[in-house]
Design brief:
100 residues; alpha+beta; 5 helices
Length: 100
């Protein structure tokens, strides 16, 4: 089975650019939730969503299933802080900390 590089394209929905990624591994396309939320001034919603312990547990399961470069040690640190009033993480920080 050959693995192709992911192919990204952009669609415009109600004037907002949304990234769509095709992995080349399967017949699935992935739509960027981040782009969709940003179109609605959603940076606040994303950071608030990432503070939630249930969200982080879901992301941890997802990454374990689909990301061979997942940093389990860093994830454990992030998860231990989730739900605290002082805890905050951005998508950029999540990627930098959990992907080798």
């Amino acid at each position: 089975m050959s693995k192709e590089k992911p192919f990204k394209t952009t669609i415009v929905v109600h004037g907002a650019e949304i990234t769509v990624t095709s992995t080349g591994f399967d017949d699935n396309d992935y739509i960027s939730l981040t782009d969709m939320l940003k179109a609605k001034d959603g940076d606040f919603f994303i950071s608030d969503w990432l503070r939630n312990r249930n969200t982080l547990e879901f992301l941890g399961v997802w990454e374990k299933m689909y990301n061979p470069n997942f940093n389990y040690g860093e994830f454990a640190i992030i998860k231990s802080q989730a739900g605290l009033n002082s805890y905050k993480i951005s998508v950029k920080e999540w990627v930098a900390k959990t992907c080798y």
